[in-house]
Specification:
Helices cover 33% and strands 22% of the residues. By secondary structure, it is an alpha/beta fold. α2 links the parallel β4 and β5.
């Protein structure tokens, strides 16, 4: 299977404008993500999908591939879909899978990308993502940590910013023993499915939780989840740069 890795990179993030270009130990965030993705041998090609010429030019300077996409996209998924269409139309190169690689995880493990891609060895899987068991009880109640529950066949039942499942036990130890899972925001799509889900209308559950993936679930799409042991660091705001400092200590 040919897999296209797309890194959506929007310049005007509400909480962190210019985030893709922030320098971390001598390299920009977007360069670090790109180089980590490039180490994944299961990807056939990688490109950045951006809405800003400064990001486009920066990616070209460090030797990466990038395409310009519209400023009006409401999600990284929409930006990935446009980038895919640009590739399919302009170069006539085809792909079986598209992997949406988050542009704000500068230390993503190449193995995580492979974990997503390899789930598609099952022909019945249309969308795949990752989850990791929560190790810190404080994360269970943190609305910025998205939780999910899935069935015995690793099909997602629901995503939420609230603790799910609701537990009647009270102690932190009991909560951790219940095995809460954090969503790791990387998505793999079969090509046709990506082009289909971006046409879906916003759903009520999506609006309630502000989680795009609930749109797909509510419209009847199954999402397969693979449990990963790799811990990702997501940089959503300037304050999150402390996560990198703590990672080194």
């Amino acid at each position: 299977m040919k897999s296209l890795g797309i890194i959506p990179a929007r310049y005007d993030s509400s909480r962190f404008p210019g985030k893709p270009l922030i320098v971390i130990d001598g390299k920009s965030m977007i360069q670090r993500v790109y180089e980590q993705a490039a180490m994944c041998q299961d990807l056939s090609r990688i490109l950045v999908a951006t809405d800003h010429t400064s990001i486009l030019k920066h990616v070209h300077r460090f030797g990466g591939e990038a395409v310009m996409t519209a400023e009006t996209h409401k999600s990284g998924t929409e930006r990935c879909a446009e980038a895919l269409e640009i590739v399919l139309t302009g170069e006539q190169e085809d792909f079986d899978l598209v992997v949406n690689i988050q542009g704000d995880e500068p230390f993503i493990f190449p193995e995580q990308i492979s974990e997503v891609i390899r789930t598609f060895s099952n022909p019945d899987i249309a969308i795949a993502t990752l989850a990791r068991k929560i190790q810190n009880s404080e994360d269970i109640n943190d609305p910025n940590v998205v939780k999910l529950v899935f069935d015995d066949y690793h099909r997602v039942l629901y995503f939420s910013r609230s603790p799910i499942p609701h537990a009647r036990m009270k102690t932190s130890r009991e909560l951790l023993e219940l095995a809460y899972f954090e969503h790791v925001g990387i998505y793999g799509f079969r090509k046709s499915i990506l082009l289909e889900v971006v046409k879906l209308l916003e759903s009520s559950l999506e609006r309630a939780e502000s989680l795009e993936q609930l749109r797909w679930l509510q419209h009847g799409f199954l999402i397969h989840v693979h449990e990963t042991k790799y811990e990702s660091i997501s940089i959503d705001s300037p304050a999150d740069l402390l996560k990198i400092t703590n990672r080194k200590s």
